[in-house]
């Protein structure tokens, strides 16, 4: 079993839709969670960063962590064609160290 | 501010030729540095990481090697490229709980 599981998609939605991207993880020691956005032929860029459980909002983006179910989510409201990218979740144990990435979900927002 | 430079952006090399990809970081000292490979439609595969000059850890046995001759310089090399070495190579710095910053990547095609 992979430490972080993420559905690779692809996911296609119409412009304006609410997008939900999800990951599950297996190790309860993970405390820090991140979402990266990667445009085609570019390096990933850090989009959202959360610690432990709860929600974090940044504009149209909301990151949610549910440690009881080991589930992390990224919600995109009013999705735009410019949101079309691959989204990767990542986590790291409380003790620090190397990030563990999900497979990435390819998102396409159609105008 | 910290920046990471990676070059070249695109590279086409024949099978059996050598490879050298360079990554440099500015604005920080003693960074943790990472080399990743990303195959088309696939997740990130950690190849090497380094916590200091001359300190290289290999994650996956392969046809590649890495070196860190200076604090903020990380080099990925191969003596003889294979077709299977084709992919998108990403350098990153950072680590622990606060995520990584990625370079813009090198798209390598071995022909």
Summarize the structure in words:
In chain A, 0% of the residues lie in helices and 58% in strands. Chain A is globular, with a radius of gyration of 13 Å. Chain A is mostly beta strands and 111 residues long. In chain A, a hairpin with a 4-residue loop joins strand 7 (61-66) and strand 8. Chain B is an all-beta fold and 111 residues long. In chain B, strands 2, 4, 5, 6, 9, 10 and 11 form a seven-stranded mixed beta sheet that branches. Chain B has a four-stranded antiparallel beta sheet with strand order 1-3-8-7, with no helix packed on it. In chain B, a hairpin with a 2-residue loop joins strand 7 and strand 8 (73-78). At the A-B interface, strand 4, strand 5 and strand 9 of A face strand 5, strand 9 and strand 10 of B.
Question: What's the quick description here?
Answer:
Chain A is mainly β and 111 residues long. Chain A contains no helices and eleven strands. With 111 residues, chain B is mainly β.
Question: What's the topology here?
Answer:
The complex is a heterodimer of chains A (111) and B (111).
Chain A (H helix, E strand, L loop, with lengths): L3 E3 L4 E4 L4 E7 L4 E9 L6 E7 L2 E5 L2 E6 L4 E6 L8 E9 L6 E2 L3 E6 L1
Parallel strand pairs in A: 2-11
Antiparallel strand pairs in A: 1-3, 3-8, 4-5, 4-9, 6-7, 7-8, 9-10, 9-11
Chain B lengths: L2 E5 L2 E4 L5 E8 L6 E6 L5 E9 L2 E4 L6 E6 L2 E6 L8 E8 L5 E3 L3 E5 L1
Parallel strand pairs in B: 2-11
Antiparallel strand pairs in B: 1-3, 3-8, 4-5, 4-9, 5-6, 7-8, 9-10, 9-11
């Amino acid at each position: 079993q992979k430490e972080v599981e993420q559905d690779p998609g692809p996911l296609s939605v119409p412009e304006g839709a609410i997008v939900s991207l999800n990951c599950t993880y297996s190790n309860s020691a993970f405390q820090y969670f991140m979402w990266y956005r990667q445009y085609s032929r570019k390096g990933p860029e850090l989009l959202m960063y959360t610690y432990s459980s709860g929600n974090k909002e940044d504009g149209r983006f909301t990151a949610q962590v549910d440690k009881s179910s080991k589930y992390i989510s990224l919600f995109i409201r009013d999705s735009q064609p410019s949101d079309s990218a691959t989204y990767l979740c990542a986590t790291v144990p409380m003790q620090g160290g190397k990030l563990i990435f999900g497979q990435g979900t390819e998102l396409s927002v159609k105008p | 501010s910290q920046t990471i430079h990676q070059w070249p952006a695109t590279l086409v090399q024949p099978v059996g030729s050598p490879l050298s990809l360079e990554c440099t970081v500015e604005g920080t000292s003693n960074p943790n540095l990472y080399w990743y490979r990303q195959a088309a439609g696939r997740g990130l595969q950690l190849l090497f990481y380094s916590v200091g000059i001359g300190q290289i850890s290999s994650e996956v046995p392969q046809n590649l090697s890495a070196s860190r001759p200076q604090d903020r310089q990380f080099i990925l090399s191969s003596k003889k490229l294979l077709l299977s070495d084709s992919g998108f190579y990403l350098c990153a710095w950072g680590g622990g709980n606060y995520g990584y910053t990625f370079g813009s990547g090198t798209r390598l095609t071995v022909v």
